[in-house]
Fold each of these.
Amino acid sequence: RNTASSGIIDPVRNPESEFSLNAKRGSRMVMQKRLSEVRKMKAEDTANIQGTAIGNVLGVNHSEAKPQLQSDKDPKNAIKVTREEILASRKSLPAYRVRSQLLQVIRDNQVVVVIGETGSGKTTQLGQFLYEDGFCDDGFMVGCTQPRRVAAMSVAARVAMEMDVQLGDKVGYSIRFEDKTSPATKIKFMTDGILLRETLLDKMLDKYSCIIIDEAHERTLNTDVLLGIFKELLSRRRDLKLIITSATMNANKFSQFFGDAPQFTIPGRTFPVEIIYTRHPVSDYVESAVTQAAKIHLSTPISSGDILIFMTGQEDIEATCSGLREKLLDVYTKKNSHNDNNEPNDIEIIPIYSSLPADVQNKIFMLMNGKRKVVVATNIAETSLTVDGVKYVIDCGYAKLKVYNPQIGLDSLRITPISFASANQRSGRAGRTGPGVAYRLYTEDSAYEDMYLETIPEIQRTNLSNTLLLLKSFGVDDVMKFPFIDPPPRKTIMTSLFELWTIGALDNLGFLTKLGTLMASFPLQPSLSKILLISAQSGCSEEILTIVAMLSVPQVFYRPKERKEESDQARSRFFVPESDHLTLLNVYSQWKANAYSFHWCRRNFLQYKSLQRAHDIRRQLSRVMVKKNIPILSSGSDWDTVRKCICSGYAQQAAKLSGLSKYVHLKTGMELQLHPTSALFGAGDLPPYIVYHELLLTSKEYINVVTSVDPFWLVEYGILFYNVKRRVEETDEFDVDQPSHGIKDKLDLQIDACNTRKKDVLRKLAT
Ligand code: CDP
Ligand code: MG
C-alpha cells in the first residue's frame, strides 16, 4: 500500500516518521508534543469542562420499541413504506413524545436549548413541529443549520420524505454552491456557513420566524460566529425564535450565553455499551479495524447488528473498505463458499465522508437485503447522522483536524487523537437499539494520556482570516469586542487580521478596502477570491475561474485499485509540469473541448461528477463576477500570466527547493514534501520556488496542489514577508513603507516577527 497517498502511517515502512501512529507510547508522545501547540491555544477554561467519566459501560439512549418499517421486516420486499408506517416511526421517536411540551417552551421563550441523545429526533422532527404549529404561516420560514453539508442534504431528504413532499419544494436545503430550495420552501436545511452568508445580505433575517442551530455541540467555527451574531440580532428582532440543539455536552454554556435560556431535555432510555480497549498499541489502525470488523462479521449472526467504523478521512476510509472486502473474499474463497467474483455477498460496505456524492451517502440509510451493513465514516457519524441498527462500533481514536499555528501563521490538516467526549459519542452509536460493543483501537492508558476531555472548539484552533473578513463586511469593525462564546486566542485574531492586511483586504486602520469588500462577496477562502480579483486585472480570469472551481471540488482523478498503473498514465497525460493548478485547468479545458463528455471522462480516468460540479461552481462564480462588474478575460495560451496570478494569492504559502526533492517553507523553514501525485514530478528537475494550495500533515508534511513560481513574483506579492520595498499595485489604500500608527500598533508583533525573518528569507531568496 502506498502509505503516503493513502494517508496511512505505516511505522514499519516509515520507522523515522515523527507522526508514526506506531503506538509504542513513545510515538504517541511525539504526537503529543505536536499537540502541545494546540493545547497552548486552548483557552483558559479547562476548569469548566465537565469530566466525562469513562467506564466500561456507557449509558446510551435508545428509542423505545420503534415500529419497524415494513421494509425492515421483509427486506426482500424493500419497496413501499406506507404513510402510516412513516407516521408510526415518527411517533416512536423520543422527541415526538414530548412534542407539545416542547412547543410550549418554544412559544414561551425566545431562546431554548434543546438537549437530546443522538437519534432522538431533534434534527428531523423540530422543523416539522414548528411547521405544523404555524411557524411557517404568513410567508415565514424555519431555518435549520447543520455543521456539515452531508447532514444538511440527507436530513432535508428525510424530512421531505416524511412530509411527503418533493425535495426542494416545501422542504429544501442549501449548501455552498448548491441551492435546492424554491420560493415555496418552508423548512430550509443549510450549513451554518450558508446562514452566516445570508446574514450579510439580510441582517434581520426577515424571512425566518425561527432558526434552529443544530448540532451546536460540534462548535464549528461558523456555528460559534452565528451564536455571537444572534446574541445581538435577537434584541433587534423580538419575534425571532432561536433553538439551539445539542447532544448532552455543552448545554449549560449555551444557556448562559443567552441569558440563562431554558433547557429542554428530551428524555430517552439507555442501553449499555461494553467498551473494549486493545491490550497493546496497534501499529496500523486501518489494518486493525479491518481485522476486527472481519472477526465480528464472521463470528456473529448477521441479524445481531451492523458495524460502524470511525476513521479519519477519505483515504483511510477507502483503504478500510477495500481491505475488508479483500479479507472477506479471501476467507470465502478459501472456504470455497458460493460468492460472485469481486464482492462478498453477505455484507454491504459503505464509505461515508463529506466529498462523496449525495446518492452514495444516502446508502447508509437504506435497508439491506439480509446483508450486514458496515458503515465506514468520518466523525460525521458521531452525532450528525444516525445509522440505525448499529451494534458494533470500531473506533480508530483519531480524527483529521484543522489546526492553525498563529505563531508562524501556518494552517494545516492534522490527524490527531480525538477527545474523550468524541470517544464516548462514537461508542454510544453502538447502543441505540440494544446493548452494543465498542472496540477502541487504542489502549486504555493511551486514552488517558493522550485525550482531552473535550474537543477544542474550531474557533480556537483555526485561521480566522475568512471569518474576520465576513465579520468586517457584516459591519463588525472591532472584532476584538465581538461576543464569541469562547473567544479565539488574541494572537490568532491578530495574525489573521495581519494576513488580511497583507493581501490588501484591510487598510492601515483595519477597515475593509474595496478589494476586501469584493473578496467577501465570493464564497471562497480569501486567497482564492484574491486570485480571482487579480486575474481580472491581469487578463486571465477565464482561466483562474476554472482553476478556482476545480479547487472547490473533490478529487477529479480516478484511481481504481486494480487499474492503478493505467490510471496513473492517464493522469500524467494531463500534467503541465510547472503546475498542478495548470494541470487542473488543462483537464477542464480538454473536457470542455470534448463536449463535456461522460465517456471521455471514463476513458481518461476522470471523475465525471466532480468535473460536472466544477462546471456548475464555475458558472456560479462567474455570475458573481458579472454582477460585480468584474471582467472575465482570457490570456489564451499565456500560462505564465496565470501562474503569476496564482502566486498573488499564495505568496505566504511559498517554499524553496532544498536538495533534490525536498522543499522548505519560506516563512517558517519547515521541511515540506511534494505530494507524490504532483505534476511537478513529471518534469525531471524540480523548480526552485513554488507556492502551494494546502498543507497536509500525516506521516510527513505534504503540500498539495503546487505551482512553480518566479522568485521575483514572490517578492512582488509577498512584499511584507520578503521585505523588498515596493508597493502592491492594486491596493492604493495601503502603503507598505509607511504603515500608519493605527495598524502598526495593532500589528506590531506580526510585523516584528516578519522583520526578524526577513533577513533569513532574503538570504534564501538571494541564493
Ligand atoms: O437529530 P437527532 O440525532 O436527535 O435525530 P435525527 O437525526 O432526527 O434522527 C431521528 C431518526 O431518523 C433516526 O432513527 C434516524 O436514523 C432517522 N433518519 C433517517 O432514517 N434518515 C435520515 N436521513 C436522517 C434520520
Ligand atoms: Mg441531529
Note: Residues 233 and 307 are 44 Å apart (CA to CA).
Amino acid sequence: MLVVEAFRAAFGADPRTVWHAPGRVNLIGEHTDYNDGFVLPFAVPWGVTAAVTPRGDHTIRLLSLQSDGEPITIERHEDARGWTRYVVGVLAVLADRLGEPVPGADIAIDGDVPQGAGLSSSAALEVAVAGALNDLHGLGMTPMELALLSQRAENDFVGMPCGIMDQAASALGQEGHALFLDCRSLGSRTIPLDLASHGLRILIIDTGVHHEHAGGEYAKRRAECESAARKLGVEALRDVTDLAGALERLQGDERKRTMHVVTENHRVEALVGLLRAGAVTEIGALLNASHLSLRDQYEVSSPELDVAVEAAVRGGARGARMTGGGFGGSAIALVAEDRLDSVQESVAAAYAERGWHAPRFLPAVPSPGASRRA
Ligand code: GAF
C-alpha cells in the first residue's frame, strides 16, 4: 500500500493501523438530516486511507500523499489549518469526550475522492482517522459512534454545522446497498440497490464548480429551518404532519424551506418503498421532483447543476437530481446502460454551448463503508 510506504519513509517505522473510509453520494433526502429527517445515501468506491501510530507525547505529525513536502507538525490543536483541521478535530473531540488528553500521533493520509465534486472527502478523512484511533486506543466505538464523533469534529472544531448523513454513509455503508437513516433515532437499515440486474447505472455528473458562499448559505438554511420549527411549535421540521396548515402560518423563505423538507422526507420514504418492492426502474420521478424542490423551494441548486439535470433527462436519463449540499458539486442521474452515451453527450453539449468547463462523468457504485485495512 502506497500510504504504508510513505508512512515508513516519513516516520521510520510501519504504522500500527491502517483505516479506509469512503466518500458518499446521496440518492435522496437532501437537507433533511439536520431537520431530524430521513436520508438515503450510499458509499462510493473512492475514499481516504489513514495510516496511524500513536506517539508518547501530544505532537501530531501529518503527511498527505496529495500534497508535496515534509509532514506538518502540530503542537497545539488550535494551530491546525486547512485540511489538517479535519484530522486534528477528531483528536480534539475525542479528548473532550474521554475527558482526558489523547496522545498525539504520526499519520499518513492518502485519498482518491475526486476533489471539489461534493462527494464528502472531508467526512471520509474524519471517519478514517476516527476508526484508526478507536482501534489504537481500544475504545470499542460502534460505526455510528465513529460517525457521531466525526460529525462533532466538523461541527465544533471545523465550524461547519453539518448533519450526520455524510459521516454515517461513510461509516455504515454496505456494498450493493443504500443506507436508510432516521436522523432523529439514528436507526438505520441497509436497502439493496440492485441496479445491474435492471440494466441501470447511477452516473455522477461532476460540474467542476464550487461556489464560495456555500458554507454561509448552508448555515443560513439550517437557521431558517430551526426558526420555522420554533414558529410551528415543533421540535424539528420532521414533526410537521399538517403541511398545508404549517404553510399558512409561515411566510417567505421559511415557508419554502418547510415545503421542501416535509415533502423531501415523504420522497425518501416513497423511494425506499419502491426499492423494497423491487421497482428501482420507477424511482426516476422522485429524483426529478427532489431536484425541482431543491432548486425552487430550498434554493441550493446552481445553473451548472440545473443544466446537468435537465440535459441528462433530455438525453434519456430516467431521473436526475443534484446531490449533497448544493451550490455546485455533483448531480446524479439514473441511466439505462444503453443510454449512458447519449446522456453524457447531451450534458457535455449543453455545457459546451454555454462555454462552460466540460463536466466529468463517474460511475457511482454502492460500496463498502469504513474498515481496517492493515
Ligand atoms: C452536506 C452536509 F454535510 C450534510 O450533513 C447534509 O446536510 C447535506 O449537505 C445536504 O443534504 O453534505
Note: The pocket of 2-deoxy-2-fluoro-alpha-D-galactopyranose is lined by residues 30-31, 33-34, 162-163, 165-166, 324-325 (CB under 6 Å).
